[in-house]
Specification:
- There is one protein chain.
- This protein has helices at residues 3-18, 23-35, 40-46, 51-64, 82-107, 125-138, 157-165, 231-240, and strands at 37-39, 67-70, 76-79, 120-122, 142-147, 169-173, 185-187, 200-206, 210-215, 222-225.
- By secondary structure, it is of the alpha+beta class.
- The protein has a seven-stranded mixed sheet with strand order 4-10-9-8-5-6-7, with helices on both faces. Strands 1-3-2 form a three-stranded antiparallel sheet.
- Strand 2 and strand 3 (76-79) form a beta hairpin.
- The longest helix is centred in the middle third of the chain and has 26 residues, at 82-107.
- It is globular and about 65 Å long.
- The two termini are 33 Å apart.
Length: 243
Amino acid sequence: MTANTDDARRRAIDKLEGLGLSAYAARTFVALVELGSGTAKSISATVDVPRTRVYDAADELSEWGLVEIESATPRRFHAVSIEHALFVLGTEYTDRIDDVTAALEAVGSTESSLSRDDLWLSSDPAAITERASAVVADAQESVLLATTDDRRAEPLADALVTAAKRGVEVRAIGVDDRFDESPVTVVDDDRPWNPAVLPLSTVLLADGEDAVVTFQSEESLAFWSRGESNNLLVLLRALLGIE
């Protein structure tokens, strides 16, 4: 095990605990993501979870919909795909935000501005590109595009340049020289996430409110959400440390 792998495990475990998993469940899930599938013995050998506690952790993960349990001797556990896990965790996170918001509104005298029922999922490449282009076109103040795959910026290149020319502050991270001699600011900086931990391909943020997120996947997959204090943006801030 390398130091980088150990650090990646710790970061992933910390993030999962922050999203509501118990310590043993978070460690077990990270081990299964690394192994693909495993027994209590192999999981315990990969992360710091006593073999007898793996079963309780797997039951917890199964209730979350993050692990499939194979009836075999010994029992074998299978992690769901990372994309599916992010969808499950994202839905749970936003549901918790809704619950807290409703409770606070019941105590207070005014309703919050949190937009509910505002998280969409799409696997249609044309729809994803259309939505991302609309987010850029509607931006009034700022746009941030960060990507691990420069090709993902190509369908949005014209829209980003057009937005910059009309006075929107447009920043791009992880792109090549396609924006040379344009008003788009290319940021020479590390991407705001570790692709080994979070399989995100592109994050698009506009005016600090609207978000489109695509995943590293053989098939197109994206979440998007629009509106002030939307739930996807809250999730991105929690996962990526975006202010």
